[in-house]
Specification:
A: 200 residues; alpha/beta; B: 468 residues; 32% helix; 17% strand; binds iron/sulfur cluster
Chain lengths: 200, 468
Amino acid sequence: MEKFRTHTGVAMPLRRSNVDTDQIIPAVYLKRVTRTGFEDGLFAAWRSDPDFVLNRPEYADATVLVAGPDFGTGSSREHAVWALQNYGFRVVIAPRFGDIFRGNSGKSGLLAAQVDDKVVLRLWDHLAEHPGATVTVDLESRTVKAGEGPEAIEESFDIDDYTRWRLLEGLDDIGITLSHAEDITAFEASRPRWKPVTTH
Amino acid sequence: MGKTLAEKVWDEHVVRSAEGEPDLLYIDLHLIHEVTSPQAFEGLRLAGRKVRRPDLTLATEDHNVPTLDWDKPIADPVSRTQVETLRRNTEEFGVRLHALGDPEQGIVHIIGPQLGLTQPGMTVVCGDSHTSTHGAFGAIAFGIGTSEVEHVLATQTLPQARPRTMAVTVNGSLPDGVTAKDLVLTLIARAGTGGGQGYIVEYRGPAIEDLSMEARMTLCNMSIEWGAKAGLVAPDQTTFDYLEGRPEAPKGADWDAAVEHWRSLRTDPDAEFDKELVLDAGTMTPFVTWGTNPGQGVPLGAAVPRPEDFEDEQDRVAAQKALEYMGLEAGTPMRDIEVDTVFVGSCTNGRIEDLRAAAAVINGRQVAKGTRLLVVPGSARVRLQAEDEGLDVVFKQAGAEWRGAGCSMCLGMNPDQLAPRERSASTSNRNFEGRQGEGGRTHLVSPLVAAATAVRGTLSSPVDLEEL
Ligand code: SF4
């Protein structure tokens, strides 16, 4: 996984709450067996509307998504994270995330930055006034920055320490766990014999 | 201080814990299916890793398989590739697979319990959010993403932050004609879709103890729909009776040892939950959704709400959007809403008791003109059992379609989809925009409401039907 320190990019406002993973990528787009090529399914149903924000030229290069609360609820499909990444997004900012989506983001290197409701509202206002403006997300200091002068926004965001550390270091979870292989083997030796197995 | 059931099960599975790190949790059972596993196996292959415990892993084909002509090669080439990839991967890594056509094939959350593989006190994971279903046995069961699937395949463990615990106590008893589905839809409407976030929920109280295992599965299944990490019910005699004699349940002395341990899996009297909710089952009625998330529901006897009635600004906006999407007018009685398609199936309500309940309502009646009823058993076993009992004949004589096992119209990944603006009453778990097909409109209902709706063509419960 690539290390994530700080990122500055065009931010796209998605003025909706409860954007579940079926909206991020509908099931019919989940048939690929690779981790790539899911960008066409991103927000597929909404994209047929030419006015949908993703279709607007000022957001053609957007890499930061600013969404309403409960982003990524519903299905466990990691394809939702891949679709966002395949399309070019590196960061999602929202006041609340679905649990599994947030976990999946951390594993795949998409930064899910949780901020206060008010911060999203301020970012939305800022982006409405300055379409195509950039936002900087600094993982080391856990801050989101946008704008300049008196209206500048500088707010902190939440992410758990462990995920932050892994993203900063670009560490793969499996490698970390396998370094504790002895603990796993010891645990296995203590499991009761009546626990079920699938092969006999 | 004592421990809650969830804390007991959790603590029994901690392989390693360290300050500032999530616990490393051992996984007793890992279920996999064709949609969320291909990239995980590919990751193993690229890193030169093996499946650590193929004997704790079980695969099946469910999300993307056809429910018609399921004994023929899959017509859609992309779907076929996905299913064939699972077959290749399970063969290469030595994982047991119940493929299409096998009598044990079916929705992953139906076959685990059915085989007796899901047992009290276990940790169960699957690359599917409705893994919470298995919590009905007193197991900690939750959905994971594909990176985590790969992690479990490689290590049989998962790093997990310890969630908080919540008790949902349901007093009283459910009135006749009110089911576990109505109970959970009522709960979600009350608590909100984010109300369970960060918690493992224990459902308890007299109304829960009265539920059959299958009804407990329906309830736990929908834990994720109000954001809970997992939902569980303490194992009791109902649980043991369900498990005894199942193919993978312990036998002989192992059974006795297992039951003895399972009996200890109860929340201690002096344990404390981080949060508690109390509901009264006695006041519950058939409950249906009107909107585009499972929290947007009302009693069947009520009307479509008005956005102005919501206090919270976000809720108001969401209600407005949902009404537009659903093509509904505020104030319309729910019972007046006409339905094009009725779907009976899914891991929420695709078990034998659900089909029996629906068949009992349908028996001797006809599906309304202009309405179609699709009955999709949750597993091949459920289908065979239903056919044994003649339920398929009841459905077919009423004009319903009797299909092969799978997820089907629950997620609309295979050809079983709604057309744009088509309206369904569905026993599944998600009424999200487009969930059952682009532009499709879903009302979540119980199997009893589904069957009565199929007969009348409008949202109904069995009491609305004319006596035979
Ligand atoms: S039936 Fe629906 S909810 Fe259940 S596993 Fe299949 S797609 Fe998921």
